[in-house]
């Protein structure tokens, strides 16, 4: 049995998936508890979508075992699909149908009993703040409203588990916050949610996360526990100009003076073994290179810093700079 713990709603052991010579998922193990928001976090190409599609029994695994709600992923895939909602990155709303008609269409697909449909649709429209837009065609909606409608369509049959693949990609920050408020409400109502995201601020909102990179899970735990894995000390550095900031990054990397140097917007994060000594020596060193430091202080590691650290430990490069 891949899952002998009833509290674990989703369980996977040794999942493998290749596409030709590319190993997209490389022996992944994970477990998701009842009533939690679990995040698959990592950059593009990390294997998040492939993992989620296998867990939702949309894509067969080359090897490994899956259990969802106690059902076996190989022999009971259709039973699993009856009890889950799956929202891919590009969810297929029908643009020429109205909001209400899209809900009715998905109620038909999920075989929601007709005696329940009207009430369920009214509840979902109100729940997603779409009641006053029910007459609009889906193509007329904003990006955030389309995402809420897509989620409502996946909730029409009251699934116990939701798989959401990068649901807020391409959505403005306000709509992203609204979407996450909805996810928190769903969790409070007892839903179990797995969400994939490349955004570290969204990872912070999950109960637990799995950092994925090159088809493997680097670590799994609460956001706080994951940040505790960071080893070393961090300094935040700002320079007089953005050009100087980039010059500082290039110089420090070229000379290999620090464990790592990453650029985050208008600042550098410097990984060092001794923050006090580095802070004492670095401004003068950079000044001799024509780089004027305006701000330098110790900071705690973020999830993004920890991800970069774990990738470096695994022998790769995170490529997570926010420039």
UniProtKB/TrEMBL annotation:
<keyword id="KW-0547">Nucleotide-binding</keyword>
<dbReference type="InterPro" id="IPR027417">
    <property type="entry name" value="P-loop_NTPase"/>
</dbReference>
<dbReference type="InterPro" id="IPR003593">
    <property type="entry name" value="AAA+_ATPase"/>
</dbReference>
<dbReference type="Pfam" id="PF00005">
    <property type="entry name" value="ABC_tran"/>
</dbReference>
<dbReference type="GO" id="GO:0016887">
    <property type="term" value="F:ATP hydrolysis activity"/>
</dbReference>
<protein>
    <submittedName>
        <fullName>Putative ABC transporter ATP-binding protein YbhF</fullName>
    </submittedName>
</protein>
<keyword id="KW-0067">ATP-binding</keyword>
<dbReference type="InterPro" id="IPR003439">
    <property type="entry name" value="ABC_transporter-like_ATP-bd"/>
</dbReference>
<feature type="domain" description="ABC transporter">
    <location>
        <begin position="10"/>
        <end position="239"/>
    </location>
</feature>
<dbReference type="InterPro" id="IPR017871">
    <property type="entry name" value="ABC_transporter-like_CS"/>
</dbReference>
<dbReference type="GO" id="GO:0005524">
    <property type="term" value="F:ATP binding"/>
</dbReference>
């Amino acid at each position: 049995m891949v899952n002998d713990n009833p509290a674990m709603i989703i369980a996977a052991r040794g999942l493998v998936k290749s596409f030709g010579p590319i190993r997209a998922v490389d022996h992944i193990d994970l477990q998701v508890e009842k009533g939690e928001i679990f995040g698959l976090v990592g950059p593009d190409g990390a294997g998040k979508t492939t993992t989620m599609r296998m867990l939702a029994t949309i894509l067969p695994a080359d090897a490994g075992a899956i259990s969802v709600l106690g059902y076996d992923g190989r022999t009971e895939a259709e039973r699993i699909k009856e009890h889950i909602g799956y929202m891919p990155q590009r969810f297929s709303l029908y643009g020429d149908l109205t909001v209400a008609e899209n809900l009715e269409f998905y109620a038909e697909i999920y075989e929601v009993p007709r005696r329940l449909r009207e009430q369920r649709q009214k509840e979902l429209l109100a729940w997603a703040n779409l009641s006053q837009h029910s007459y609009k065609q889906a193509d007329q909606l904003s990006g955030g409203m389309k995402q809420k409608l897509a989620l409502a369509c996946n909730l029409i049959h009251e699934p116990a588990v939701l798989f959401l693949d990068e649901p807020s990609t391409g959505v403005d920050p306000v709509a992203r916050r609204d979407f996450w408020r909805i996810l928190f409400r769903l969790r409070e109502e007892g839903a179990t949610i797995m969400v994939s995201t490349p955004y570290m601020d969204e990872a912070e909102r999950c109960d637990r996360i799995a950092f994925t990179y090159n088809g493997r899970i680097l670590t799994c735990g609460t956001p706080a526990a994951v940040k505790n894995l960071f080893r070393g000390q961090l300094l935040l550095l700002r320079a007089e100009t953005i050009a100087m900031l980039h010059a500082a990054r290039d110089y420090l990397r070229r000379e290999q003076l620090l464990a790592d140097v990453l650029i985050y917007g208008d600042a550098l994060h410097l990984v060092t073994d001794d923050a006090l000594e580095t802070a004492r020596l670095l401004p003068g060193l950079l000044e001799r290179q024509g780089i004027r430091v305006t701000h330098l202080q110790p900071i705690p590691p973020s999830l993004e810093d920890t991800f970069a650290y774990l990738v470096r430990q695994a022998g790769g490069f995170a490529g997570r700079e926010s420039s």
